[in-house]
Write a structure and sequence with these properties.
Elements (H helix, E strand, L loop, with lengths): L11 H28 L1 H4 L8 H36 L15 H6 L7 H12 L1
Helix pairs in contact: 1-3
This protein binds zinc ion.
């Protein structure tokens, strides 16, 4: 263990339940990703060749919905994996950009927060440009 005065890291008693929670979430997300895939008419390959136009449209809508949701789920899974890695490295709660501690109120709302509120705002500003 490193001894450093200004390095505050969370004690294991705080991190253990977070890790448990995140692993549980990851499992749930993977299950819903599978379910979403099963709902996608394009992936199943069970489209009727003699589909009416209406049925085609419905399938397209269903595919788009399933695809959009799967992307969302994938993003959440990636965020959880990143967070678990950061916990392992002892970097949990430290802003990946400026290195400051992330506000614990913010972490309480978003366990997978990677940046402090200031850096997050800056990143969003840069994105919208
Ligand atoms: Zn920051």
């Amino acid at each position: 263990m490193e001894k450093s005065k200004n390095k505050i890291s969370f004690p294991a008693t705080v991190l253990a339940p977070i890790v448990r929670f995140l692993r549980g979430e990851e499992k749930k997300l993977k299950t819903s990703r599978k379910e979403l895939k099963n709902q996608d008419p394009f992936i199943l390959g069970n489209r009727d060749s003699d589909n009416s136009v209406d049925a085609d449209v419905a399938e397209n809508v269903e595919h788009d919905r399933s695809y959009a949701l799967r992307r969302q789920v994938n993003r959440s899974i990636v965020a959880i994996r990143k967070t678990l890695t950061r916990i392992k490295l002892g970097k949990y709660g430290i802003c990946a950009s400026c290195g400051k501690m992330i506000d614990t109120d913010r972490l309480a709302i978003r366990l997978t927060a990677e940046y402090c509120i200031d850096c997050e705002k800056q990143r969003e500003k840069a994105k919208s440009k």
